[in-house]
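Sequence in, structure out. Go.
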Amino acid sequence: MSKIVHLYVESLASEGYGIAYLDGKVTFIPFTAPGDEVEAELIQIKRNYNYAQFLKIVKPSSIRIEPLCQHFGTCGGCKWQHLSYKTQLEWKQQFVVDAFERIAKIIPHETYPIVPSHQPFYYRNKMEFSFSPSDSCPEKPVLGFHLPGKFNRVFHVEKCFLQNDFHNVLRHHLYEIILSLNLSPYNRKTHEGFLRNLIIRKNSKDEWMIILVVTEDKKEIIHHIFEKIIPLFPQVISWNYVVNQKKNDSLHDLDPILFYGMPYLEETILQIQFKIRPLSFFQVNKNQAEKLYSKVVQWGAFKKEDVVYDLYTGTGTIALSISPFVKKVIGIDNSSQAIQDAQENARNNSVCNSVFVFSDVAKGFNDSLIEEHGRPNVVILDPPRSGVHPQVIKQLLKKRPERIIYVSCNPGTQARDISMLSELYELHKIQPFDMFPQTAHVENIALLILKNSSVSTPQ
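Output:
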């Protein structure tokens, strides 16, 4: 039997949940703000914590604001719309500081204030929507986002504020065309149906790309869809589709099919031009990414004789951005497609001092690679949320680069890793970046300098 409780929200957790206490036990409640008095239903009761579902506000916090989006509370994306942007930034700054004080037990020499996003809304250059049967009418598709924790349930999105409003207009037109053709949505339980996903991308020049994901290569049907919509939206310069017959939605191992227009979009970061193909990885908040990469260049204090290793390089965006300032940059990543994209971007920009290696970073960053390309003066780390592999930490302590620049999307694992490096490295600076407004996610960049080295600290 569920239990309804009255709770006072005291603070926020780094995952974005409100924190209250019930009989001394931490209780996490989404969509709440510090200072809220709420009525909630206990959903999970664990030994050390509870998880509750927010029901209603008894007394609102003074810092609570009215969410902009009608889907707030249903959608799992923008869980912080009820907090002002100033409040969001303050909490993200605190999350980073707390991670280093509590996990690493290290206080940096300098902690810089968080860099806010250029826009708190409309900042994404890529959005992905899913088709699914409607709850009320299984034959009729809905087009939107998955309900939190529900792999097979999607709610229909009327308007999303994360990407330029053009995408809402485009998406609704496409949806109406699909309704008129009586096409079946993909059912993630039975694995039946035709329509799976819709991906919408854009660049800074306001050029757009569409990727429709379907289960069969029914060219006549796809032609019907595209021929109705292409004339309406000349801003879309690339129309593509992908046939996905797998039981999961991952697309990295599939080949997109160009239906009409250009096979890629172009984007520029720090004078480096990137080709963004339908399935390419690219930072979704381009303006913030450019600010972050500029900080990497500044803090790297690179010299023309430097050999730099960019570990977890992805498509090489950081590596190529620093290439004009160094002797050589070696990027390593375990995604073959990302490495191919990085190599192509290097060729397209006539970057001759970069090498991109397809390998698991823990195995690839080894003595033989370093013997081939030279001892690192600087190492850049930009790992996934799980952090840096212990073998990489061991190799860094062995090779002792003068500087390490650690970019992280998870300050907790970043603090843990830096703690393991602290026997040889001093943490000189940290600076958070807000890449994802309206969420609890925060990026952080840290500069580590080898102890007792003669390296001057960059400003």
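Check: The longest strand covers residues 49-59. The chain is about 25% helix and 30% strand.
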